């Protein structure tokens, strides 16, 4: 069975001030063409279909368009909700839509109930594990302490229990939206840390033939059977070096996996350039970036006059301007943002405690801070879904 694995469309999202709906529509066209021309038997979409719980109308129309086009091809599609989606909204009409071969899996309670497709070698069971927000699903899965590993392991227990009841030789595919250990993150993914931990071990997917992952925006192979497709388009300059693609996966009669990357259309190259303003305007080696979307970091010791206007004369698609004067780390003028770069909310809070009272928090106090951050993040998820 040939599968096309994609995820993290983020329909409705912009890239800085650039509306991406046109590029997203071009990707959808490319996806449908790939399905038709490469003999795809099933499409799997591993979450973050939309960029937010209440997407703009143009994004909903594009989503509606791709569902109709895939249904017209007669190619089954299995789709889960991600942490950016409203599971309830995405799942509306799932029963009716399923009759057209578009199978939406947005309910955690249905994790152990597969979509079963067949090829000449037998059945393939597709298990959709939507994004499992630990604080919201721990009761459903009967776990005592909310955490990503605990709830995902409980969901996979249901998968294995169901798979054990099926005919010998039944192959299995799991769709999941999670941060798996070994994956490389980018700046455009929403933080899903709970209890100080965001990642789960790849071993949680042991026992299935292929795990089609979503959430991380870089296409990557965790193991031969556990892969991220990544987002089809860039959504931050941290993705400058990404090769945007989908996985074309051949699942053999014995469960053997062979995977090929299928490149996605590139609306415009990304470039990060760094230096003084005069150097950036004069350096001949930067000519290759003149038509790219550019993030420019200026290292001038004093902010120059009209930097954006001058940059856009040479780099008309400059979208981000960062000031990072080259100073010694102990220079009192080093920016607050630079001092905080790369530090988590937990670490910043602990530093604040140490600054105020002269000593950092002990283990119990660290736990209180961690629980507070988890509660706020979970409350934000509930509020967004309820909108």
Structural class: alpha/beta
Shape: globular
Share of helix, binned:
25-40%
Strand order within the widest beta sheet: 6-5-4-1-15-16
Q: Average pLDDT, to the nearest integer?
A: 91
Distance between the termini: 40 Å
Rg, nearest Å: 23 Å
Quantity of strands, as a count:
19
- Provide a count of the helices: 11
Low-confidence stretches: none
Strand content: 15-25%
Q: How do the helices and strands follow one another from N- to C-terminus?
A: EEEHEHEHHEEEHHEEEEEEEEEHEHEHHH
Biggest sheet character: 6 strands, mixed
What does this structure look like?
- By secondary structure, the chain is an alpha/beta fold.
- The protein has eleven helices and 19 strands.
- It has a six-stranded mixed beta sheet with strand order 6-5-4-1-15-16. A six-stranded mixed beta sheet has the order 7-8-9-12-14-13, covered by helices on one side. A three-stranded parallel beta sheet has the order 17-18-19.
- α7 (277-282) links the parallel β17 (270-275) and β18 (293-298).
- α5 packs parallel to α6 (148-164).
- The mean pLDDT is 91.
Quick summary of this structure?
The protein has helices at residues 21-37, 57-73, 87-90, 94-98, 134-141, 148-164, 277-282, 307-314, 336-340, 345-357, 363-386, and strands at residues 2-6, 14-15, 18-19, 42-46, 77-80, 102-105, 115-119, 122-129, 171-177, 179-180, 199-200, 210-214, 220-223, 226-228, 245-251, 257-263, 270-275, 293-298, 318-323. By secondary structure, the chain is an alpha/beta fold.
